[in-house]
Design a protein that fits this description.
The complex is a heterotrimer of chains A (465), B (365) and C (311).
Chain A: H1 3-54, H2 61-97, H3 102-134, H4 143-192, E1 204-215, E2 218-229, E3 233-237, H5 244-251, E4 259-265, E5 271-273, H6 282-285, E6 287-289, H7 302-309, H8 318-323, H9 326-346, H10 361-372, E7 379-383, H11 391-408, E8 411-415, H12 419-425, E9 428-433, E10 436-441, H13 443-448, H14 450-457, H15 461-464
Parallel strand pairs in A: 3-8, 3-9, 6-7, 7-8
Antiparallel strand pairs in A: 1-2, 1-4, 4-5, 9-10
Chain B: H1 5-15, H2 22-30, H3 33-53, H4 58-83, H5 91-108, H6 113-137, H7 140-161, E1 164-166, E2 173-174, E3 177-178, H8 181-203, H9 206-216, H10 218-223, H11 228-254, E4 256-258, H12 267-280, H13 285-297, H14 307-311, H15 313-330, H16 334-363
Antiparallel strand pairs in B: 1-4, 2-3
Helix pairs in contact in B: 3-8, 4-8, 4-11, 4-12, 4-13, 5-6, 5-7, 5-11, 6-11, 8-11, 9-11, 12-13, 12-16
Chain C: H1 2-11, H2 13-33, H3 40-58, H4 62-87, H5 93-114, H6 126-130, E1 137-142, E2 145-150, H7 151-173, H8 175-185, H9 187-192, H10 197-221, H11 232-245, H12 250-269, H13 283-297
Antiparallel strand pairs in C: 1-2
Helix pairs in contact in C: 1-12, 2-7, 2-8, 2-10, 2-11, 2-12, 3-4, 3-5, 3-10, 4-10, 7-8, 8-10, 11-12, 12-13
């Protein structure tokens, strides 16, 4: 790596540590607030318990009713469900061995269901009667007792707040000091980084110039050039085998282009040449991608997939990780919070701890996209995101892509065969065929372009004749 | 059902906010790997103490120490195979590196254990880096057989250098103090537990996750910023270091090896360690340790009490083979899977009993 | 000097036969069931013990004894594939390989138990049992010196050429051969095309184990003393021959199996020069190092094809 690259990596690490420190400050303060709240609630519960043990007749009727009644009923329903499940699986086992038993088993199951329904009625009636009986002598709690209790809780909360206030201020001070130090070293690092000699128009984020990719005698990409503007959604279309994924692989350095220039404005605002980067550094510059064949890590959970996606944000070395130093725990906490936020954004919070291996295809595709959001990228490359999705899912994907672009302010480059999605979502479309550029322009221009129609979209009958 | 519903209410409301009982706290603590390893080392230290008192034989303690040496190899291999998915049959050769460094430094030149340890780790790092770079070019079964060839190269080199090595007890010193065989047991225990802890830490950290991602999909890993070369080499370096340390400790403990006839540096050991990791559960450290115990520890500890097995040692080898076959046939997740299945079945049966008891009570209303 | 060199090369003839048979067996199993058979040596040794038992204790003529041994090998191979692999749950490739390792231990412990624990038995060569009292070597005078062949080695070479030749011809022209080649290419697709892959893999295992026993018998007849692990060195060489030649073809491992014994003996021949007189100690090390270098240059083997996964 050249010296300027090393300085750039140091700059990136400084920036990432600074951002992490800021996030960590927020997390710590939030933790303290939550802790105080939890303690206050616990204190209130303890106080109430003490009070009600002394004066059991003051217990709130409706609350007892709800709590005890609901809890017991829920337990009852759970037990009934369990019994029914056992009976169902037993019946299935018997029927699979002796199919003629099916009717007997069905009637037995129906009997069980009826028995359970009857039992439930009896049970609810019994519960209500018992509750009414035992709550006869209940009176409302005297208002001054109630006020006194609430007063005590409030006092507790205030005192805890005061106690933790000092702690919070100390944390803020520490963190601010750290943040100031990091900002200073960041300024120093920024000053040291030399500017590259490359230039690109102000509003362009990626410039592909004369890209050629040859595999021996096969010219997969031939002299392709296009520019992607900041903040736009750029589509790449073409028939199968046109070389679209090859273009992406060249941009993300999975292949080293045979010739051509790839200019990119990275997160620091510098213009760099992508061909100088190695494939695992591309994400640090700000480009992330998804894969045509969903490449989710199947052995681990969804949350861990996102933690892996945030790998480039960890700054600690091997020794710190082997000894599980406190800094590691801190950074893991920060990345985990970010992962939870991304999961919520994508609507995957329920799947957080599920192993990725068994999940349906649509969820896996969502995880692919969620992974790209972990590092706040400049440019997101989506390789056939709608492959295998039906119309409803494609519609929600369209909405998701637009939401990502609007929330993060990043640029999106996508390859897609679903023309509806492409025409709806893209501002600029580039059509290629056999590795060469066919046309580039707005969706309307592309739709009306005769070369594109001939090669890919299909002509209408009159034009063909 | 004649309960005091008011008490029920207090119970339910207060349930969420009461402090944990001591039993629950212990249970929670036991989930942390560090606590598990501390308890484990306490148990093993107790063997040492019991031996001083005469309650257990020194051969039993010796067998445990011997097993721990193989377990160190196996844990490094677990990280290599279970978490990085790299096939390597070269473990035995790397063990030889540690053993021969121990011989030359301690016996011939009289250095302390500490110096030998540092030199072993250094040489292992260099070897591991070499093998790691080789693994970038070669994959799958080719890599496995290549590492087998490498192990054979090392073994034949060692035999040519000196076909039988011995260390005198008197030469073994740590920090200047001479120690006896039983103290070496404690040393092995210390090294084993520390390495267990470090490996567990690595598994539950970004490094461990990066290794898993390289194993599952190298393209996705690279796109997420994980340097393929760095992590492949790292996996090999770690497993080589562990194997070499095991060799070093082997020479410290057994102090004698006839390399030309011993199976320690032969393919047998590499295959046995691979088998131990697989039957224990490729991603579980405890399972791997238990697998090693089954293959190496069982015959010297538990089965040595039964006369039949002492007379027919070949039977134990057969039993080991049979056990490997049966476990892989019916429990592909290894012993770790068997253990978690049993735990789950136990929990389910307890749940079932409780449900049945409650349903009976409902019926009696 | 040249005659001495040729003599050394021809002396590796027996090693070539034995390694060829073993390497082909390993490749056959690997290509049809994606398993590296680590138990090759142990099964071969067991079969050899059976043959030795027949020859020495029961007075059965040698070729019938060999057939009995090979039949036992067939039985073991079928047992492993049909009963062990099919009956297990969720066995993947790694699992199969571990199972073969389990069989290594099983045979390692079981062979002495079954045959009463005699460690090293002498074994009679093919030649001696056919014609007693005549010279066991054939000597050709050429290139200014003597080139020595043992008759045992010549008989073994003939047997190997016939056996392997027949198998290769069958692979190319017969329906079974087509099935094997298809299964080797992709088991799943072969099944979809109507090929009974279970039968193919069972036959492959049976054939491979029989060939292993044959190789062990040849090796023992050439003067090696039998023990439960006497084929271990051959197995290592067979595996190395397979990766030298590449697993992508059937003939690659055979070519590798010819090269390795020849190169080993050539390196050993250098001991005749005063500068390298100590080389016999390092013979194996040098050969293996050379192999490593070749494989690093061609990672898929000499005849292998590189498969690049599309991203």
């Amino acid at each position: 790596m050249a010296e300027s690259d090393r300085r750039y990596m140091r700059l990136e690490r400084c920036k990432s540590r600074l951002a992490m420190e800021k996030e960590y400050k927020d997390i710590l303060l939030k933790d303290i607030d939550e802790q105080v709240e939890k303690e206050a609630v616990a204190f209130e519960a303890q106080e109430r318990e003490k009070l009600y043990r002394q004066h059991p007749e003051w217990m709130p009727k409706e609350l007892v009713y709800e709590t005890v009644y609901q809890a017991k009923l829920r337990q009852f329903d759970f037990d009934m469900e369990f019994e029914m499940q056992e009976a169902l699986s037993q019946a299935a086992r018997i029927v699979s061995k002796n199919p003629e038993q099916k009717e007997i088993q069905d009637s037995r199951l129906k009997e069980l269901a009826e028995k359970q329904a009857r039992l439930r009625e009896k049970f609810t009636a019994h519960l209500e009667a018992a509750l009414k009986e035992q709550l006869k002598e209940q009176v409302d709690i005297p208002p001054d007792e109630e006020k006194a209790l609430l007063g005590r809780v409030e006092d507790f909360r205030l005192s805890r707040c005061r106690e933790t206030q000092a702690k919070k201020e100390k944390i803020s001070a520490d963190e601010d000091a750290k943040i100031k130090k990091l900002e200073a070293s960041l300024k120093k690092a920024e000053g040291a980084v030399s500017k590259t000699g490359l230039s690109m128009p102000e509003d362009t984020v990626l410039s592909v110039q004369n890209l050629c990719m040859y595999f021996g005698g096969v010219h997969a990409v031939e002299n392709l050039s296009f520019d992607v503007k900041k903040g736009e959604i750029f589509g790449l279309i073409g028939p199968n085998g046109a070389g679209k994924t090859t273009v992406f692989n060249c941009i993300t350095q999975f292949y080293k282009p045979t010739s051509g220039t790839l200019l990119f404005e990275n997160k620091a605002g510098e213009i760099i040449s992508l061909t100088d980067e190695s494939v695992h550094n591309v994400i640090c510059q700000g480009i992330v991608r998804t894969f045509q064949n969903v490449e989710v890590i199947r052995e681990v959970s969804v949350l861990e997939n996102l933690l892996i996606a945030g790998h480039s944000r960890f700054t600690l070395g091997l020794a710190a990780q082997a000894l599980h130093l406190p800094q590691l725990k801190k950074q893991e906490r920060i990345i985990k919070e970010k992962a939870m936020k991304v999961l919520e954004f994508m609507g995957l919070s329920d799947y957080k701890d599920w192993t990725a291996a068994g999940l349906p295809y649509g969820i896996l595709k969502k995880i692919e996209i969620a992974r790209t959001l972990m590092c706040d990228p400049q440019l997101i490359i989506l390789d056939e995101p709608a492959a295998g999705l039906n119309d409803t899912e494609t519609a929600s994907l369209t909405e998701l892509i637009l939401r990502i672009r609007d929330t993060l302010g990043c640029t999106i480059l996508l390859v897609e065969h679903d023309m509806g999605l492409v025409m709806n979502v893209c501002q600029t479309i580039c059509a290629i065929s056999f590795g060469e550029l066919l046309a580039i322009g707005s969706p309307e221009e592309i739709q009306n372009n005769p070369d594109v129609q001939k090669a890919y979209l299909g002509e209408s009958e009159e034009e063909a004749n | 059902m004649n309960t005091d519903l008011r008490k029920d209410y207090l119970g339910i409301v207060f349930e969420k906010h009461r402090k944990l009982t001591a039993k629950e706290r212990v249970g929670k603590a036991l989930h942390i790997p560090l606590t598990q390893y501390l308890v484990f080392s306490a148990v093993l230290i107790s063997f040492y103490i019991l031996m001083q008192g005469g309650a257990v034989t020194s051969s039993f303690v010796f067998a445990i120490g011997n097993t721990m040496i193989y377990a160190i190899m196996a844990i490094g291999f677990c990280l290599l195979m279970g978490y990085s998915g790299l096939a390597s049959l070269g473990t035995a050769g790397f063990v030889g590196i540690g053993a021969y460094i121990a011989f030359y430094l301690v016996q011939e030149y009289g250095y302390t254990f500490g110096v030998a340890f540092i030199v072993t780790v250094a040489v292992a790092i260099v070897t591991g880096i070499m093998v790691g770079f080789i693994s970038l070019r070669i994959e799958g079964i080719y890599l496995a057989i290549l590492t087998l060839g490498l192990s054979e190269i090392l073994r034949n080199t060692f035999i040519s250098l000196k076909s039988s090595i011995k260390i005198d007890m008197s030469k073994i010193q740590i920090l200047g103090a001479k120690i006896g065989e039983n103290e070496v047991y404690l040393l092995i225990l210390l090294v084993f537990v520390v390495l267990l802890w470090i490996t567990s830490n690595l598994i539950h950290s970004p490094v461990g996750r990066a290794l898993l991602s390289v194993k599952n999909s190298s393209s996705a890993a690279q796109a997420m910023g994980i340097n393929l070369m760095k992590y492949r080499v790292l996996a090999f370096v770690i497993s080589t270091i562990y194997a070499a340390i095991a060799g070093l400790l082997y020479m410290m403990y057994l102090r004698n090896m006839t390399t030309s006839t011993s199976t320690l540096l032969a393919m047998t050991t590499s295959l046995n360690i691979l088998g131990a990791v697989v039957i224990g559960g490729a991603k579980s450290l405890w399972g791997t340790s238990f697998g090693v115990f089954i293959i190496y520890g069982l015959q010297s500890t538990l089965l040595s009490k039964i006369a039949f097995f002492v007379e027919n040692p070949a039977f134990i080898t057969m039993l080991t083979g049979l056990m490997i076959i049966l476990i892989v046939m019916f429990f592909p997740g290894g012993i770790a899977q068997i253990a978690s299945n049993l735990a789950r079945k136990y929990r389910e049966s307890k749940l079932r009993k409780n449900v049945e008891r409650r349903i009976e009570a409902y019926g009696r209303i | 000097m040249f005659a001495a060199f040729l003599s050394t090369v021809c002396g590796s003839l027996l090693g070539i036969c034995v390694t060829c048979l073993s390497a082909f067996a390993v490749t056959l199993i690997f290509r049809t069931s994606t398993t590296a058979n680590f138990a090759q040596a142990s099964i071969a040794a067991f079969g050899c013990y059976v043959v030795a038992d027949c020859l020495n204790n029961r007075g059965i003529p040698v070729y019938i004894g060999v057939f009995i041994g090979m039949a036992i090998g067939v039985a073991i191979g079928l047992f492993i594939d049909l009963l062990v692999f099919r009956k297990g749950r969720y066995i993947n490739e790694l699992g199969k390989q571990i199972i073969t390792m389990g069989f290594v231990s099983l045979f390692f412990g079981g062979t002495p138990l079954v045959f009463g624990n005699p460690e090293f038995i002498p074994f009679e060569s093919f030649y001696n049992t056919t014609k007693a009292g005549t010279d066991s070597n054939i000597v050709i005078n050429a290139f200014g010196g003597e080139i020595v062949f043992t008759k045992h080695a010549l008989i073994c070479t003939a047997i190997t050429v016939v056996v392997l030749g027949t198998i290769f011809i069958l692979l190319k022209v017969s329906k079974w051969g087509l099935g094997v080649r298809t299964t080797a290419s992709s088991e799943f697709t072969a099944e979809l095309m109507g090929i009974d892959t279970h039968v193919i893999t069972a036959i492959s295992w049976a054939l491979a184990c029989a060939l292993g026993v044959l190789a062990a018998v040849m090796y023992a007849g050439g003067g090696a003393m039998i023990s439960a692990s006497f084929m271990a060195i051959i197995q290592v060489n067979a595996f190395l021959a397979c990766i030298l030649g590449g697993f992508s073809t059937f003939y690659g491992s055979v070519v590798g199996a010819i090269l390795i014994p020849v190169i080993t003996n050539c390196v050993g021949f250098l001991a005749n020069f005063p500068a390298f007189h100590n080389i016999s100690r390092w013979q194996l090390v040098i050969v293996y190092l050379l192999l490593m270098i070749v494989i690093l240059i061609k990672p898929q083997g000499l005849f292998g094809k590189k498969v690049v996964k599309k991203v």
